[in-house]
Design a protein that fits this description.
Elements (H helix, E strand, L loop, with lengths): L1 H24 L4 H5 L4 H9 L2 H6 L2 E5 L5 H14 L3 E4 L4 H14 L5 E4 L18 H4 L5 H18 L3 E2 L24 H17 L6 E4 L20 H8 L1 H8 L4 E4 L19 H11 L5 E4 L5 H4 L6 H9 L4 E2 L4 H13 L5 H17 L13 H5 L2 H14 L1 E5 L10 E6 L6 H7 L5 E6 L5 H11 L4 E7 L13 H11 L4 E6 L16 E4 L5 H11 L24
Parallel strand pairs: 1-2, 1-8, 2-3, 3-4, 5-6, 6-7, 10-11, 10-12, 12-13, 13-14
Antiparallel strand pairs: 9-14
Length: 570
C-alpha cells in the first residue's frame, strides 16, 4: 500500500515544479532588476536619514530557543536601530514565524529575513524537513532533482516569512580533513560543484527566494575553522582563479543574487598581514565586483567569528568590511557601534557618495524583488503541515534514492531465503536499515555492534557470524554531523576488515564518504554501497538496492583514497 502511495507522489512533484518554474520564468531576476530605475526604492531611500541608510547594511542574529528576554532584546535593537535584516538560528518553525511577524511590525522598512538553509529549514529548525547534505547531492546524476529541491526549499522559506537563503555552499572541498566545509560541499570536482550549485540556486530564485553562494573565493582547502581562527589559503592567484573561484564565476554568469565572503587570509590576493578576505577591498571590490563583474549582494560571513574579530576588534572589522565592499554586514558584535563607525567613514569619504547610494539601493531593490514593498504577515494556520508536506517528503526519498552509490559489486549475490545476518555497526539499538532489510530476507537475524564494543564481544560475534550463508552490514555514524573519520574503536575497525575479507558480505556505509579511507580492508569487500549520511531515507534507499528494487545510479563526488576516486559508481 505504501509503495503505491509513493508512486502517486512523483507526478505531483513534477506538475508542481514545472508549474512553479513557468510562473516565475515571467518574473525579472534580481540582477536584471538592479539595472533599472525603481520608484519604490528611490522613494524609500530619499525618506531615510544617513543613519537609517547605514543601518540597512546591518543584519542581526535571532533565535527562538533562547527565551523571551533574548527575543525581546533583539526586538528592541530592531526598533531602535531600524536595521536591514535578521538572520535566524536555532528554534522552531511556528515560534519563528510568530517572531518574524513581531519583528516586521517594529521595522519602518520591512526586514530581509534570512537563515542558513543549505539542506533546508532542518539545518536550523526542529520539526522541519532536512534535505540531503550537499555532499550527498553531489552524487546525484539528475540535476533537475536538485532544481526541484531548490524550489521546495524556497517554498518552505517563504511560507515561514523569509526572503533569503544563505546558501548554497559552492566551495570545492579538496581537503578531506576540512573541519568546517566538508560534507556541506557538493564535492571535490569543481565542474560538479558548479552544476549542482547552479541547479540548486536557480530552483530557489525561480521560486522567488534570494540566495547566496558561499564562501568566496573558496573555503574548501582549509584546515582551520574560521569560527575559531583565521584560515590561510596559501595558493597562487592562477590556482585560485582556475579552481576555487570556478564555481563562483559560473554562478555569477548564471545570475546568482548574492555571494558570501569567507574569512580567510589569502596572501596572493591581498598580502596585508592577518587581513581576512572579508575586509579586503582588492578581493571584494577588485576581484568579485570588478573582475568577475558581480552586480548582486555581497554578504560578509558572520562578523562575530574569531577569524575576523581576533585581529580587528572593537568594531574595526565592521568599518573595514564596509569599505571593502560588503553590502550586508552579517552579525556584527555590536550593530549600534558599527552604524556609528560606518557613518563616520561615509562622512570622511572612505567610500564615494555614488557607491554608498548604489549599495543601499541594492539592498532596497532586494527587498522590492522579494515582495517586501507589499509586505504581508506570515499566516500561521496549517503552517506545520504546509512545510512538512507529503510531496516534500517524497522528494527527499527521491533525492536519497538517486544518491546511493555502488562502489563494488563483483562477488556477492544476495538471495532472499538464505540464512542471513543483518548487522549494524556503530549503534546501540536496531536501525531502520535492519528493519527494512529484514522484510526482504525472512530467514535472518539482527546483530548490533556498538562503536566501542570490547575485543571479547567482537570476537564472539565474528565467530557467531560464521554460521550464516550471507551477511549484510550497515556502518553507521550516529553523530549529529558526519565527520571524515569514524570514532570507532580499533577492535571494531578490525572486525570490519575481517568481514570485508569474507566473500558473502555486503556493506552499506551510512557515514561521510571520507570515512572509508579510515577503514583499511573495506576495499576488499565484494559489495559496497556508500550512502553518505545516516538519514532514514538513505537507509530505505540502501534496503531497496539490496533487495533488487532500486538500481543505484550515484557517482562518488569526492576522492576517498587510491581505491575509490571521484566519479566512481557502478
Amino acid at each position: 500500500m505504501q509503495a503505491s502511495k509513493t508512486r502517486i507522489f512523483y507526478p505531483l512533484i513534477i506538475i508542481f515544479t514545472f508549474f512553479t518554474a513557468d510562473v516565475f520564468a515571467q518574473k525579472e531576476s534580481y540582477i536584471q532588476l538592479l539595472g533599472k530605475q525603481n520608484r519604490w526604492v528611490d522613494s524609500v531611500y530619499h525618506k531615510m536619514s544617513r543613519k537609517q541608510r547605514v543601518a540597512q547594511l546591518l543584519f542581526v542574529r535571532a533565535h527562538t530557543n533562547k527565551g523571551k528576554a533574548y527575543e525581546d532584546s533583539v526586538g528592541q535593537v530592531i526598533k531602535e536601530q531600524q536595521l536591514g535584516g535578521v538572520v535566524f538560528f536555532q528554534g522552531g518553525p511556528v515560534r519563528q514565524a510568530n517572531l518574524i511577524n513581531k519583528y516586521q511590525k517594529l521595522a519602518k522598512v520591512p526586514l530581509i529575513i534570512t537563515m542558513d538553509g543549505e539542506w533546508g529549514l532542518g539545518m536550523r529548525l526542529d520539526s522541519t524537513i532536512s534535505y540531503p547534505y550537499q555532499m550527498t547531492l553531489g552524487a546525484i546524476q539528475d540535476d533537475n532533482l536538485i532544481y526541484k529541491m531548490g524550489q521546495q526549499v524556497a517554498y518552505d522559506f517563504k511560507r515561514l516569512g523569509m526572503q533569503m537563503n544563505l546558501g548554497p555552499d559552492m566551495d570545492v572541498n579538496n581537503n578531506p580533513n576540512n573541519p568546517v566545509i566538508n560534507y556541506r560541499s557538493f564535492g571535490d570536482n569543481m565542474y560538479n560543484v558548479a552544476k549542482k550549485g547552479i541547479a540548486y540556486f536557480k530552483g530557489m530564485q525561480d521560486a522567488g527566494l534570494l540566495t547566496s553562494a558561499k564562501h568566496f573565493p573558496g573555503h574548501g582547502d582549509t584546515n582551520v575553522d574560521s569560527h575559531f581562527d583565521l584560515p590561510l589559503l596559501p595558493y597562487s592567484r592562477s590556482r585560485l582563479d582556475s579552481l576555487e573561484m570556478y564555481p563562483f564565476r559560473e554562478a555569477i554568469n548564471a545570475g546568482i543574487s548574492g555571494v558570501m565572503i569567507a574569512h580567510m587570509g589569502i596572501p596572493s590576493l591581498d598580502n596585508t598581514p592577518k587581513l581576512p578576505s572579508t575586509l579586503s577591498r582588492p578581493i571584494i571590490t577588485g576581484i568579485l565586483k570588478d573582475s568577475l563583474n558581480f552586480k548582486g549582494l555581497v554578504i560578509s560571513d558572520a562578523m562575530e567569528m574569531k577569524g575576523v574579530t581576533k585581529y580587528f576588534p572593537n568594531g574595526e572589522a565592521d568599518v573595514k568590511a564596509f569599505i571593502a565592499g560588503n553590502d550586508i554586514i552579517e552579525l556584527s558584535e555590536n550593530s549600534d557601534r558599527a552604524i556609528g563607525l560606518i557613518r563616520k567613514a561615509v562622512r570622511h569619504g572612505s567610500v564615494s557618495a555614488a557607491e554608498f547610494e548604489a549599495r543601499i539601493k541594492k539592498i532596497l531593490t532586494a527587498k522590492y524583488w522579494a515582495g517586501l514593498n507589499q509586505y504581508k504577515p506570515t499566516a500561521l494556520t496549517n503552517l506545520s503541515q504546509d512545510i512538512n508536506s507529503d510531496a516534500a517528503k517524497a522528494l527527499v526519498q527521491q533525492l536519497s534514492d538517486a544518491a546511493v552509490t555502488q562502489l563494488k559489486n563483483n562477488k556477492v549475490k544476495l538471495k532472499p531465503f538464505l540464512k542471513t545476518a543483518i548487522v549494524s555497526i556503530g549503534v546501540s539499538s536496531p536501525t531502520l536499515f535492519q528493519m527494512e532489510v529484514v522484510k526482504s530476507f525472512p530467514n535472518s537475524r539482527i546483530f548490533i555492534i556498538n562503536k566501542d564494543a570490547p575485543a571479547i564481544e567482537v570476537t564472539n560475534i565474528l565467530n557467531w557470524l560464521k554460521q550464516y550463508q550471507q551477511i549484510i552490514v550497515g556502518i553507521h555514524d550516529t553523530r549529529l554531523r558526519p565527520q571524515s573519520k569514524l570514532d570507532y574503536s580499533s577492535d571494531v575497525k578490525l572486525m570490519i576488515a575481517d568481514l570485508a575479507s569474507r566473500k558473502n558480505t555486503a556493506f552499506s556505509v551510512f557515514a561521510n564518504a571520507y570515512t572509508i579511507a579510515g577503514l583499511p580492508g573495506l576495499e576488499k569487500a565484494g559489495s559496497l554501497l556508500v550512502c553518505y549520511q545516516m538519514s532514514p531515507d538513505l537507509q530505505q534507499s540502501a534496503a531497496k538496492v539490496l533487495s533488487g528494487r532500486l538500481k543505484p545510479t550515484g557517482k562518488l563526488p569526492v576522492s576517498v583514497n587510491a581505491f575509490f576516486t571521484t566519479g566512481m559508481g557502478l
